[in-house]
Amino acid sequence: MERIPWPVWRISLVIVFGAFVGMLDSSLVNVGLDRIGANLGATLDEVQWVSTAYLIALAVSLPLCGWLSRKVGVGRLWLGAFAAFTVASGLCALAGNVEWLVVLRVVQGLAAGLLTPAGQTVLGQAVGPQRLGRVMSILGIAVSSAPAIGPTVGGVLLDSLSWQWLFLINLPIGAIGVALGLRYVPRGEPGTPGRLDWTGFALIGLGLPLFVYALSAVGEGGGGIKPAVLVSLVLGAAGLVAFALRSWRRERPLLDLTLFRNRVFTAGTVSSLFIGAAMFGAMLLFPLYFQILRGAGVVATGLSLLSLGLGTMVVMPLAGWLTDRHGGGIVALAGGVGTVLVTVPFAFLGADADPVLLQVLLFLRGMALALSASPAGTAAFASVRREQLPDATTTLNILMRVGGAVGGATIAVVLSRLLPTGAEHAFQVAFWWLTGASVAALAAAWWLWRVQWHERIQPAVVPA
């Protein structure tokens, strides 16, 4: 394998700051919604928009990443998004009422929607396809560790400080990240992306957030679908379908969906979609398992989940090395098998499960997740040309967001319908559903491996 020079590692470490702070912020703020509402005199429905507005805004800006990357240069876009996110974090801490806080969270979400795909594009263009796995594994450590430590950090902050520190904690991380980015991140060359496809942006810019919001609302609403939520779901799905049809036919679309003619890219993104469903479903299910079934507090729950993040962090560098050496498909397949095998035992565990056994299973699941999540996406990115990376990273992140919304909503609906009949039974059924999502991710990883294997042997086949 080609050696990765230190300047490339340095760029990847700087990009990690953006990925880490974006993922950390969401889990931190969700922990403190009750405290924020009490201090700002807001009802539960009102303060819930502090979280919902962030997710919707993130979904709105995500489709613009590819076009903006070509317009201003992907490094400049990453720096601008990180700076805007950091400034918005500080302003959130100064908000005097919930209305202003929601507005500022929209600004945060718009910036966060650009951070991850822009960072992935910077890394992909800096390192090249043959070394992408090892570099992307560093980014994967940040993405996986931030949600794991977020509840613990949030609980500790709220125990001793005001809710404003849930946002102020982003300031030193953001300041360091932007300063290092100005010094080390390549700016990228501005291109000529053509006029923005405003019709296409309207379709996906409304369709994606409506679809994600509707799925979230279904989960929060106890499984009953209100008419407004159903309308949002239908309009969101229609907008996404219309966007896809328009983009496929258009010469210079907002997103180049002809990337799906590339079989490796298609298999990698589909695999990432199902991995997103399993991963985000687990992010919802495991904290509730400890809080509801085992009666743990916020801090205790966060500490209990540290082993999950630790398992991912330990194995992620190995996953990157294996991806560069053997291809992302076979690594994701191994991770998918491990994820299924480690998820099944949770469907049999009750409230009195041995704590040591739980920690071992969580650690093993973190290891399996490291072997499945990053390699699939890396395989997709490595299969496209350098100039296609902005559209590739944006498309994959959109599908992971949709998959995550579906996975989270499914788990939430299952729990809300079954909890009245008994918490232990409800969680066992929910873990079977999570196992089903993991099996779907495993099947997609098998497809990715088969496609990569076929493409490797195809050049050696000489027609008769």
Question: Mind explaining what this structure looks like?
Answer:
This protein has three domains: 1-196, MFS general substrate transporter like domains (Growth Hormone, Chain: A), CATH 1.20.1250; 198-253; 257-455, Up-down Bundle (Growth Hormone, Chain: A). It contains 18 helices and no strands. By secondary structure, the chain is an all-alpha fold. It starts with 5 loop residues before the first helix and ends in a 7-residue tail after the last helix. Helix 4 (65-72) packs antiparallel against helix 17 (389-418) and helix 14 runs parallel beside helix 16 (355-382). The chain crosses the membrane at residues 7-29, 49-68, 77-96, 102-123, 135-157, 163-184, 196-215, 227-245, 265-290, 296-318, 330-350, 362-384, 396-418, 430-449.
Please tell me the total number of domains. Answer: 3
Which fold name fills CATH's third level, the topology of the largest domain? Growth Hormone, Chain: A
Shape: globular
Low-confidence stretches: 459-464
Q: Radius of gyration, rounded?
A: 21 Å
Query: Do you know the CATH architecture of the largest domain?
Result: Up-down Bundle
Q: Portion of residues in helices?
A: over 70%
Largest sheet: none
Return the CATH class of the largest domain: Mainly Alpha
Number of strands: 0
Summarize the helix and strand pattern as letters. HHHHHHHHHHHHHHHHHH
